[in-house]
Design goal:
The protein has 2 helices and 6 strands; from the N terminus they run H-H-E-E-E-E-E-E. With about 110 residues, it is an alpha/beta fold. The mean pLDDT is about 80.
């Protein structure tokens, strides 16, 4: 039995809608993580291209499917400044690499070690 073509296109449209919803929610940055990132780095704003409203699209940032920041990888970005304790508020962070920069960290990084 042939499927009427208007039902077919409706199905395709639904699939597309479903996929695009999944993809876009995958990358919506968690607001608390956005704020933590933003207040953690005291570096010249020109140093990091963190202009997008969705922090999961920021340079060096990777999020999980819930929009929680899991990776913060900014090695050798010639960053000069300091990193504050707010970084510790990124509760889902599992990978951190800030090596080969000139960043001042005036607190213990112990909180990242189990
Ligand atoms: C980080 O967490 C502490 C304690 O929960 C809170 O006082 C502080 O405002 C948070 N900072 C940011 C930038 O979210
Ligand atoms: C900053 O990032 C945005 C989007 O992520 C991009 O469109 C823009 O070209 C970037 N700007 C620079 C100076 O890299
Ligand atoms: C951090 O990144 C640098 C440069 O990519 C690399 O050489 C280094 O091994 C990394 N450190 C860790 C702990 O992954």
């Amino acid at each position: 039995m042939a499927v009427p073509s208007h039902i077919m296109s409706c199905g395709v449209f639904f699939m597309f809608f479903f996929l695009s919803t999944v993809i876009s929610t995958n990358h919506a940055c968690n607001k608390a993580d956005h704020n933590s990132l933003w207040s953690s780095f005291d570096v010249p704003s020109s140093a990091l291209n963190w202009s997008s409203s969705d922090c999961c699209h920021w340079e060096g940032i990777t999020c999980d499917k819930d929009g929680r920041v899991t990776h913060l990888l900014l090695p050798s970005k010639r960053l000069q400044g300091s990193v504050s304790r707010s970084l510790g508020n990124l509760t889902h962070l599992s990978h951190l690499n800030l090596s080969h920069n000139q960043l001042l960290v005036l607190w213990k990084l112990d909180s990242f070690c189990p």
